[in-house]
Amino acid sequence: MTEHQRVNMGKQHPANYKALLALSSAVEETTTAAGLDPLLVELVKILTSQINGCAYCLKLHTRDALKKGENPDRIAVLHAWEETGYFSETDRAALRLAEAISRVSEGRVSDEDYNAAAAVLSADQVSAVAWLSTVMNAFNRVAITSRYPVTGN
């Protein structure tokens, strides 16, 4: 059996990747306009990437979060966020929604998860977190499928 080298989707179809980057930029503007903390935005990206097992995005967004001043302890316990006291009510609402969206194949975004987020977040924030999670799930799938390299550099 011959192994095929993975196609880098972004290079193979640059217009599609450019459109994804443009959507990501628009979503970043949406998160800012909705008043989401930039550190929370990075945590949502990291959590989504943890769920999907995307090493490339994990490395990228962990570095970004640290550069923005995120506490390394919060990153270390992020995948077990429900079990810690590190996260605010707003953080927890956003993380719960992002997790539900990222795990949609396991049983949809339940009313319980959605309502828990909507009880804390404004409509703009719920939508911004949903868009952010959606875009991160797309980036994770591009990076994983293309096998973006992750090295010790």
Key words describing this protein structure:
globular; 153 residues
How would you sum up this structure, described in words?
The mean pLDDT is 95. The longest helix has 24 residues, at 123-146. The termini are far apart. This protein has 153 residues and is an all-alpha fold. The chain has helices at 9-12, 14-33, 38-52, 55-67, 72-76, 89-102, 111-118, 123-146. It is built from 8 helices and no strands. The protein is globular, with a radius of gyration of 16 Å. Helix 3 (38-52) runs antiparallel to helix 4, helix 3 (38-52) crosses helix 8 (123-146) and helix 6 (89-102) crosses helix 8 (123-146).
Helix and strand string, N-terminal first?
HHHHHHHH
Q: How many helical elements?
A: 8
* pLDDT < 50 runs, ≥5 residues: none
- How far is the N terminus from the C terminus? 32 Å
The chain-level mean pLDDT equals 95
Q: What's the gyration radius in Å?
A: 16 Å
Given helix and strand content, the structural type is mainly alpha
